[in-house]
Amino acid sequence: MHLVVTYNAIYIMLVFNFTRIFKARGVERIFSYVREIGYSDNFATKVAHNRFDKLNLKQIEKFCVILKCTPNDLLEWIPDANEQNVENHPLYPLKRSDKVLKLTQMLNSIPLDKLAAIENMIKNEIEK
Question: The whole model's pTM is what?
Fold first, then answer.
């Protein structure tokens, strides 16, 4: 379910996108994972299918701690198709692409003998 708000004929859409962050963290079975960390079936289903229009701050904080992310990582902005200059809008950083998912898929397809070299390269970059 996506929350759609109209303000002076402007379409605004800010949604939770749990799929993106869970996949980036290597969690493929979101429902099972959310159940394992103590949530109900109903709550886990809503998370797995991004069916939230609101969460309380304690729930957001718990996900951020578990997934090592910020609240912004849980949100996605879907601008109105008619909106112009979206690159200049303050919400633009929340307009997501599937780059993280592509990176995960790419890493999963790399031969094991090359993963060690890539791991070292990433580790060196992070330490800078």
Answer: 0.64
